[in-house]
């Protein structure tokens, strides 16, 4: 029987700069910094992993292609994952997983209906 993913109560401090670095590739540095500020101020919310993946339009081939050894080891050991940092791209209507894509996929692989905490900007 597989264990369920355990979650921290808030993102780690290092998650915000990581999200901003990723977002800078998509929306540029200035917009990424503004989104980072919005993410820091956002309230924690929760949705099932399957809904977040669908909104991000992540192909299942990407989820299946990932090497889960590290995440599965962390789950078995009961390590807590940091909540996701998400951004809604109003132009494309796509949900961007700014930080936590691998954590989201690991949660989905364990249980598609698993509740995943996140902040949304």
Provide a brief overview of the structure.
This protein has 121 residues and is α/β, with parallel strands linked by helices. The chain has helices at residues 15-27, 29-41, 49-56, 60-65, 69-76, 101-110; strands at residues 6-7, 44-48, 80-81, 84-89, 94-99, 115-120.
Question: Would you give an account of this structure?
Answer:
- The chain has helices at 15-27, 29-41, 49-56, 60-65, 69-76, 101-110, and strands at residues 6-7, 44-48, 80-81, 84-89, 94-99, 115-120.
- With 121 residues, the chain is α/β, with parallel strands linked by helices.
- The protein has one domain (6-120).
- Strands 2-6-4-5 form a four-stranded mixed sheet, sandwiched between helices. A two-stranded parallel ribbon has the order 1-3.
- Strand 4 and strand 5 (94-99) form a beta hairpin.
- Helix 1 (15-27) packs antiparallel against helix 2 and helix 3 (49-56) crosses helix 6.
- The longest helix is centred in the N-terminal third of the chain and has 13 residues, at 15-27.
- The radius of gyration is 14 Å and the shape is globular.
- The N and C termini lie far apart (36 Å).
């Amino acid at each position: 029987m597989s264990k369920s993913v355990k979650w921290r109560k808030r993102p780690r401090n290092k998650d915000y700069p990581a999200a901003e670095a990723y977002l800078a590739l998509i929306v540029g540095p200035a917009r990424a910094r503004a989104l980072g500020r919005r993410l820091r101020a956002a309230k924690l919310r929760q949705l099932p992993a399957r809904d977040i993946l669908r909104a991000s339009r992540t192909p299942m081939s990407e989820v299946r292609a990932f090497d889960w050894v590290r995440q599965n080891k962390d789950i078995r050991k009961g390590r807590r994952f940091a909540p996701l940092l998400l951004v809604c791209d109003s132009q494309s209507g796509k949900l961007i997983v700014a930080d936590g894509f691998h954590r989201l996929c690991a949660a989905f692989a364990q249980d598609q209906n698993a509740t995943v905490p996140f902040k949304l900007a």
